[in-house]
Design goal:
The protein is mostly helical. The protein has one domain. It has 14 helices and no strands. Helix 12 packs antiparallel against helix 14.
């Protein structure tokens, strides 16, 4: 059951690009959708564990955790809703590259020779993923690629902040993460919409509201499943199982999303996945 819980979480995140694109087509931008997805978690935890609010207000580390979570989810969801899913997901999973630097900076962890190897593997994989189909120097193809990269940085920052907040209760950490998933996308959406950079909040329609509510329920259940699974099995095994999100996202994008896997992307994805797998050995 713990493994199934982790697989369910990876499955929900790996296939989230499809409902996000359906919502985008109905006028609900991915930033607004992200805010709605995490609202359910804030309501349920905020009402069920009211004492968690006190810990959240008094703990600056939890504020940073909220900021990192909001940045991660808004960037990732926006990226997969508008870009090439495989590229965005692979760039997102450059997380081991950023985690090495953040752990050294914020946690004082030493950069080991194996950590340096992981960084080189991840960088090599990124260069292959970003290599144009017609050859030439690696380059970002547009905003979705940048969003995938930024989301991965936010994900690495989230993991570091979770370790710094390990002494706080699970309810406080969960409330911080869900609150960040609501507040940062909401503020970013308001700022971007006021400048005409993204569509404003759409006219009410039951179609997008029901789909967003269903996705909010799915994300909430996925979060609970991940917490249950992660509490039952070793951390390094949790990390390995969570990498199946790459398989779910890439497979679904190719199967019914019309995307293709070029040899360079496959090779780059293999290097990124290898770097992520090597990172799990440090957690064993």
């Amino acid at each position: 059951m713990p493994y199934l819980g982790l697989l369910f979480n990876a499955f929900v995140w790996g296939l989230s690009w499809w409902p996000l694109r359906q919502l985008q087509a109905q006028g609900l931008h991915a930033v607004w959708a992200t805010m709605l997805f995490f609202l359910m978690g804030v309501v349920v935890i905020g009402l069920g564990r009211r004492e968690a609010w006190r810990g959240l207000w008094r703990t600056p580390t939890l504020w940073w955790l909220a900021l990192a979570t909001g940045l991660t989810n808004a960037s990732f969801n926006w990226g997969v809703a508008t870009g090439e899913v495989v590229r965005v997901v692979l760039l997102f999973y450059l997380m081991p590259l950023w985690a090495v630097g953040l752990a050294w900076w914020l946690l004082g962890e030493r950069i080991t020779p194996m950590a340096a190897v992981r960084v080189l593997l991840a960088l090599g994989g990124a260069l292959l993923v970003l290599r144009p189909e017609d050859g030439g120097w690696p380059r970002f193809s547009g905003l979705p690629d940048w969003l995938g990269l930024i989301g991965g940085m936010g994900f690495a920052f989230t993991n570091v902040m979770l370790r710094r907040a390990a002494q706080r209760s699970s309810a406080e950490r969960a409330l911080a993460m869900f609150s960040g998933g609501v507040c940062l996308p909401g503020l970013a959406g308001w700022a971007l919409a006021s400048q005409g950079l993204i569509p404003a909040w759409p006219v009410f329609d039951w179609g997008w509201l029901l789909l967003a509510a269903a996705m909010g329920l799915a994300f909430f259940a996925a979060n609970l499943a991940m917490q249950y699974g992660a509490s039952q099995i070793p951390v390094h095994l949790t990390s390995v199982v969570m990498l199946t999100e790459i398989v779910f996202a890439s497979g679904s994008a190719v199967w019914f999303g019309g995307e293709t896997l070029r040899p360079a992307v496959l090779a780059g994805g293999g290097l990124i996945l290898l770097a992520a797998l090597m990172a799990t050995r440090d957690e064993a």
